[in-house]
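step 3/5: co-fold with zinc ion
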Amino acid sequence: MIYVAPSLLAADFANLEASVKRVTDAGANYLHLDVMDGAFVPNFSFGTPVISALRRHSKLIFDVHLMINDPIRYIDDFVKAGADIITFHVESCDDPAAVIRAIRAREVRCGLAVSPATPVERLLPYLPDIQMALIMTVVPGFGGQSFMPEMLEKVRAVRKVADRDRLKLDIEVDGGLNAENIGQATAAGANVIVAGSAIFKSKKPKLTISSMRSAAVMNPYKG
Ligand code: DX5
Ligand code: ZN
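step 4/5: write tokens
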């Protein structure tokens, strides 16, 4: 199953409720929520108040992508705000295993992300303990950047280990995805596709999401 996750970062921040409704009606599976602290990445976005406010208006799976230092400090807050999946960066803390334990102690799914400059080997030891690996296909911090196809090597590496070890693992790709390049990502083994600009800036988001799904179906992972 392919899950399409529009990134709220590309929405009209003056009209969040309407923006979420628009992508929900267009067929989104998840709502990808990029949290930035101005320290782990050189940008700010939004935090728990915005997520809990939207939670009251949406039944989508809330896919929270933490781009913050020392995420363990805030896991409880994001659970309370309504996160269904919490993903943090392997580069953002000294003890990823402790953060994974903190997330898994709650009723939420755990994801672990890797930035373009970080080797995928940093992720591999944690795969048995997480539900989702997030391979960044842009340098985190900003929406609207170009997809880095060379990151698909990491997707293939993770999918290979997951297959070998029979792990039930989602692989998410994030950054610069659209209907033109989604097929490369699904063929490499990704099944959760984040798209900010491509969906929120589209005049016909329903058509955009259905074109993305068809391109994904035409380019399945074959092992
Ligand atoms: C980048 C964020 C992405 C970004 C995706 O730091 O993690 O989720 O918003 O947006 P697009 O699809 O516009 O690259
Ligand atoms: Zn993201």
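step 5/5: annotate
The two ends are 15 Å apart (CA to CA).
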